[in-house]
């Protein structure tokens, strides 16, 4: 089974982007990256995105949550586009910021790749070792 489109990974930390990109590409996913919420929206408009993995808090204009809301409102994007938010903040604080939605998951930082794999499987049906 293939993911329809790219996995868009968004984080302001280049090390996180490199680690996640290498892991997901090694598992056979097509990956693109962005370093802030504005770039996240631009990338999602320019490419067919099948999954977003985004940090919640980043420098610049807006948060990962703001970007996802904007992306999901675009005519060419499904309002059910699967999203995995990642964060270093407490799960309680993060849950208060993200919408309650069956197509959204939350994983903590540092990234637990088994939890990330399970979140991808739950959202897309694709189960590949990361």
Structure description:
- With 130 residues, the protein is an alpha/beta fold.
- The chain has a single domain (6-124), classed as 3-Layer(aba) Sandwich (Rossmann fold).
- The chain is 39% helix and 20% strand.
- The chain has a 5-stranded parallel beta sheet with strand order 2-1-3-4-5, with helices on both faces.
- The chain is globular.
Outline of the structure:
This protein is of the alpha/beta class. Helix content is 39%, strand content 20%. The longest helix is centred in the N-terminal third of the chain and has 13 residues, at 14-26.
Please give the count of helices.
5
CATH class: Alpha Beta
Q: Would you list the SSEs in sequence order as H and E?
A: EHEHEHEHEH
Question: Biggest β-sheet, characterized?
Answer: 5 strands, parallel
What sort of overall outline do the alpha carbons produce when their principal axes are compared? globular
* CATH architecture level-2 label: 3-Layer(aba) Sandwich
Give the full name of the CATH homologous superfamily.
Response regulator
**How many extended strands?**
5
Can you tell me the number of structural domains? 1
- Strand order within the widest beta sheet: 2-1-3-4-5
CATH fold group: Rossmann fold
Structural class: alpha/beta
| Fraction in beta strands | 15-25%
Mean pLDDT across the residues is 93
- What is the terminal-to-terminal distance? 16 Å
Oligomer description: single chain
Helical content, roughly?
25-40%
Low-confidence stretches: none
Radius of gyration: 13 Å
């Amino acid at each position: 089974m293939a993911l329809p489109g790219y996995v868009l990974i968004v984080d302001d930390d280049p090390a996180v982007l490199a680690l996640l990109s290498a892991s997901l590409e090694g598992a056979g996913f097509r990956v693109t990256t962005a370093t802030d919420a504005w770039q996240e929206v631009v990338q999602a408009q320019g490419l067919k995105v099948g999954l977003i993995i985004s940090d919640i808090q980043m420098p610049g204009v807006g948060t990962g949550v703001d970007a996802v809301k904007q992306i999901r409102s675009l005519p060419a994007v499904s309002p059910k586009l699967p999203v995995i938010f990642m964060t270093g903040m407490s799960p309680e604080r993060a849950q208060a910021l993200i919408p309650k939605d069956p197509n959204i998951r939350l994983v903590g930082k540092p990234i637990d790749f088994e939890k990330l794999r399970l979140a991808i499987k739950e959202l897309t049906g694709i189960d590949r070792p990361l």
